[in-house]
Write a structure and sequence with these properties.
The complex is a heterodimer of chains A (about 425) and B (about 280). In chain A, helix 3 packs across helix 4, helix 3 packs across helix 5 and helix 4 packs across helix 5. In chain A, helix 6 links the parallel strand 6 and strand 7. Chain A has a 6-stranded mixed sheet with strand order 5-6-7-3-8-9, sandwiched between helices. Chain A is of the alpha/beta class and about 425 residues long. Chain A folds into 2 domains: about 200 residues, P-loop containing nucleotide triphosphate hydrolases (Rossmann fold, 3-Layer(aba) Sandwich), CATH 3.40.50.300; about 130 residues, Coagulation Factor XIII, Chain A, domain 1 (Distorted Sandwich), CATH 2.70.50. Chain B is built from 12 helices and 1 strand. In chain B, helix 4 packs across helix 10 and helix 7 packs antiparallel against helix 10. Chain B has one domain. Chain B has about 280 residues and is mainly alpha-helical. The mean pLDDT of chain B is about 85. Classes of the chains: A alpha/beta (about 425), B mainly alpha (about 280).
């Protein structure tokens, strides 16, 4: 097996905080602090060195990347992803551990680094390109490609301060997209521009990986991560939670960000967080199959019942609903009783709501359930508990056919009849 | 190619090979600073000329006509002052720009890797462009007054240039590193530079300090620019004699300042991104 192109061993990074109450020091402050310290020593007072002055952004990180791999790095905000990239880019030194790099690195930690407002687009291409590590000869060679990719057109020779924010970002990304290093490190910079441009950027990033380059990619966009990377590193509070195939790690990450509730009967009386003005409360959610048994696994095209036990302390009109989202928190199904009736009902006291869906058309997979109460016209939320439970849809079993059910192409199923004439 | 990233230990040496590899970036940043300065300025290049000329006129009036300070060797005061002034302006501008360069480029420092030395070094080059432009006026003045530079004077110019650049960069690098950690350096520096100008023989000739030998020797040892100015005047205007011992001391001191500044900067640059 070839030597890994990046080898990280026991990497740790510590920041000292707390001692600096201001964003920067001044000599005056340092002199005052040092004399205070000295004075304390003379008076034999305890000088406390607070442990909370130390913040470990990364703790004992170890992993390797093989040449040509596209590795995603995911984690919550503050997990240490950007710090890891900064250390790999040699912008800040590690506190402990070591990294062995066996290739030329180009880092994209920000789009438009070094762009100067007074210079024209053309001049900024050279400036930004050189800053990112290309030589002037390289930039000249790729100049036309970069201009074409950015779609700047006739604005090439106007100062960048006249550009719209979209143009600015397109130009910046166009330069960055034409980097040809052996190792490319990208930090959440793909979320720029309109949808069409984002697709182009994603495509260009994909090209980079196909040419055998190694890519390290930090993002919060799980779709982009799954599309571009094969392996994924999951960081949490500065430590490695997992380093494995992307689909597995993304599943873990999404699972961790939603509270693990496998129960078909959820007591919601003390559940937090919840939204709504609290004029009514959902006390309990039950997910039942066709025989009224609590379950969280249901067959595709089968039926499901949602039972909400609610309490209305005061008389008010209401409308009830259940939202179904995919595990990436994309909305899929919006079930409301106000869709089925136009008579406004007023409630007080304990209320039990039973919603029945006769044919679940979602593809097999995991889905999040969110019960909801609003006023009858669905303008104000009275109580809304997001993602408090989940259901797993199982693949259907047909004797005469096999369904393809690929989530890349579809999310819901509908019966269709086909007639082909020759 | 293989390299390791490890926690920094001990005294770091300057990586000259790496600086050479990044020469493109150095040239690009220097070009950026120069072109930005003259873009969208109606006067543009003219400003580089107006400033020294008007300063010369005003200072001649105040110090020569009103306070009656003479050059001491028969040189007309305007050209005497102007020669000293353009050298001083290079030094003070380079010093301020270099000290502030790291903070001004903080966003770059936090996002891209490159040898940080490049940033203050580009501050030294923009000053050279201004010096070149204001030298044109000097040539004009020399023609007006009918001065011809001595041959030795022309030979000595490169040496003076090197001493000037080394001392400006040396102190500039030191201040740049200090400024990142202690932001009040930025406010103290203009004041210090002002005072320093009066401790340099820009407005008056060195011989006026003969009555205070202590001050004079302090100036000679600690301020390399004084020897540069004295010898520039001697070489270009041909009225006074060279001060070669002073120049030798200045050369030595500027090398010392440069090395100290360079190593202080190099050893604190690792943490710039964290505290900038």
């Amino acid at each position: 097996m070839a030597k890994p192109i990046i080898e990280i061993e026991h990497l740790s990074k510590r920041y000292r905080i707390g001692a600096q109450r201001e964003p920067y020091l001044s000599i005056r402050d340092t002199v005052v602090r040092r004399s205070e310290h000295l004075w304390n020593i003379l008076r034999r007072k305890e000088t406390v060195r607070h442990a909370q002055d130390d913040f470990w952004a990364l703790k004992d990180i170890s992993f390797s990347v093989q040449p040509g791999e596209a590795v995603g790095i995911i984690g919550r905000n503050g997990a240490g992803k950007s710090t890891l990239l900064k250390i790999l880019s040699q912008i800040t030194p590690p506190t402990d551990g070591s990294i062995t790099m066996r290739g030329r690195v180009a880092s994209l930690l920000e789009v438009g680094t070094g762009f100067h407002q007074e210079l024209t687009g053309r001049e900024n291409i050279f400036l930004n390109g050189t800053i990112l590590g290309m030589t002037r000869a390289e930039i000249r060679k790729k100049f036309d490609e970069i201009v074409a990719f950015s779609e700047i057109g006739k604005f090439l020779d106007t100062p960048v301060k006249r550009y719209s924010s979209g143009m600015y970002v397109r130009l910046a990304f166009a330069v960055a997209a034409h980097l040809e290093p052996e190792i490319l490190i990208v930090d959440e910079v793909l979320a720029v521009g309109d949808a069409g441009f984002q697709k182009k950027c994603l495509g260009k990033m994909g090209d980079v990986t196909k040419h055998g380059r190694t890519v390290l990619f930090v993002s919060h966009n799980m779709n982009a991560i799954q599309q571009l990377t094969q392996k994924c590193l999951y960081l949490e509070s500065g430590q490695v939670q997992d380093f494995a195939l992307t689909s597995k790690v993304v599943g873990e990450y999404l699972g961790a960000t939603h509270r693990e509730v496998k129960s078909a009967v959820v007591d919601l009386s003390d559940w937090q967080p919840r939204l709504g003005n609290n004029q009514a409360q959902i006390l309990k959610l039950e997910i039942l199959d066709v025989h009224d048994r609590p379950t969280t696994t249901l067959p595709m095209l089968g039926s499901v019942k949602f039972r909400l036990t609610c309490r209305f302390p005061k008389k008010c009109d209401a409308s009830f609903g259940v939202f179904i989202h995919t595990s990436e928190e994309e909305p899929l199904l919006d079930l409301r009783n106000s869709d089925t009736t136009s008579t406004c009902q007023v409630y007080q006291g304990n209320v039990v709501v039973l919603a029945t869906v006769t044919a679940l058309s979602m593809y097999p997979g995991e889905y999040l359930v969110s019960p909801w109460i609003a006023d009858f016209q669905c303008r104000k939320d009275l109580d809304w508990v997001q993602y408090c439970s989940r259901i797993t849809i199982l693949p259907p079993v047909f004797e005469d056919r096999i369904l393809s059910l690929d989530p890349k192409w579809g999310r819901i199923y509908a019966e269709s009849s086909w007639r082909i004439t020759q | 190619m293989e390299y390791k990233i490890t926690p920094p230990m001990g005294l770091l040496a300057v990586n000259w090979a790496e600086l050479w590899r990044f020469r493109d970036l150095f040239l690009t940043l220097a070009w950026r600073d120069i072109s930005v300065r003259y873009k969208q300025a109606a006067l543009g290049v003219l400003w580089a000329l107006l400033q020294p000329i008007s300063t010369m006129l005003i200072f001649t009036f105040i110090f020569n006509r009103m306070a009656n300070i003479q050059s001491g060797d028969g040189t007309p005061y305007p050209i005497f002052f102007y020669t000293g002034m353009i050298i001083w302006q290079y030094y003070s501008n380079t010093l301020s720009n270099a000290s502030n360069s790291m903070v001004a480029n903080a966003s770059l420092v936090q996002k891209v890797y490159f040898p940080r030395l490049i940033v203050p070094a580009t501050a030294a080059t923009t000053g050279l462009v201004d010096l070149a432009i204001s030298s044109l006026v000097l040539i004009g003045l020399m023609a007006w007054y009918g001065f011809m530079p001595q041959f030795v004077g022309i030979l000595i110019l490169p040496v003076l240039l090197v001493v000037m650049i080394l001392s400006a960069l040396g102190v500039g690098l030191f201040m740049a590193a200090l400024n990142i950690k202690y932001r009040d350096v930025r406010y103290a520096l203009p004041f210090v530079i002002q005072i320093l100008m009066y401790l340099t023989p820009v407005i008056y000739p060195v011989r006026m300090l003969d009555k205070w030998p202590l001050v004079k020797s302090l100036m000679v040892w600690l301020n390399p620019i004084s020897a540069v100015i004295t010898n520039a005047r001697a070489g270009l205007l041909g009225q006074s004699s060279f001060d070669l011992p002073g120049l030798a001391i200045a050369g030595l001191m500027s090398c010392v300042m440069f090395i100290v500044g360079l190593y202080y900067f190099r050893n604190t640059e690792r943490y710039f991104a964290d505290i900038a």
